[in-house]
Amino acid sequence: MEMVFTFGIMVFLGSMAVFSLGFRKESIAGDSLGAAGFPLLIIGIGLVLCTMQLYREVKAGKAARKGPIDFTTSAGRVVVYSALALAGYIALFNFLGFILSTFVFSLVAAYLMGYRKKMMLVAFSVMTTTALFLLFGKAFFVPLPRGVGFLRDLSYFLY
């Protein structure tokens, strides 16, 4: 899996190298590399590092050819449940609105991670939802989803 990821990064860097070769040639005094010089330098360093990583991975042979997640353990199941919770959060985000969906998601996510004290879970969820609401909704002026029906009308009282 790591080899595939590293190879994917190399393909991306190669495509960026081809793209950067299309930069206009401008003559600026003191610039010996041109417009594509610095990007090509960074891409070259990245390709060298990726090649070294691939060499190490092939040399090691990956003796333990196990999948990235062992679903038979409780930690593996937590990963699956967390992914399902995130998918549910994304799916219900526009229907429930930002505040309610974020509150429920943070509550479920913290519970899945092992927190069991009910008052701490609720306090964590309220603080997380409030902090995210203030940061994105008020400080950065990001338009947050309001929900549908009654939840939409209720959201106008808050934002």
Task: Itemize the secondary structure elements and their pairings.
Layout: H1 2-20, H2 37-60, H3 74-96, H4 98-112, H5 118-139, H6 150-158
Helix pairs in contact: 1-2, 3-4, 4-5
Number of strands: 0
Q: Write down the Rg.
A: 24 Å
With helices defined by DSSP (H or I, 4 residues minimum), what is the helix count?
6
* Low-confidence segments: none
The helix content, as a percent range, equals over 70%
Q: Into which percentage range does the β-strand content fall? A: under 5%
Shape assignment: flat
Category by helix and strand content? mainly alpha
User: Quaternary arrangement of the chains shown?
Assistant: single chain
Q: What is the H/E order?
A: HHHHHH
Spatial separation of the terminal alpha carbons: 44 Å
Average residue pLDDT? 86
- Major sheet size, sense and barrel closure: none
Any idea how many domains? 2
Question: Could you explain the architecture of this structure?
Answer:
With 159 residues, the chain is an all-alpha fold. The protein has two domains: 2-60; 74-158, no CATH class. 70% of the residues lie in helices and 0% in strands. It has six helices and no strands. The radius of gyration is 24 Å and the shape is flat. The mean pLDDT is 86.
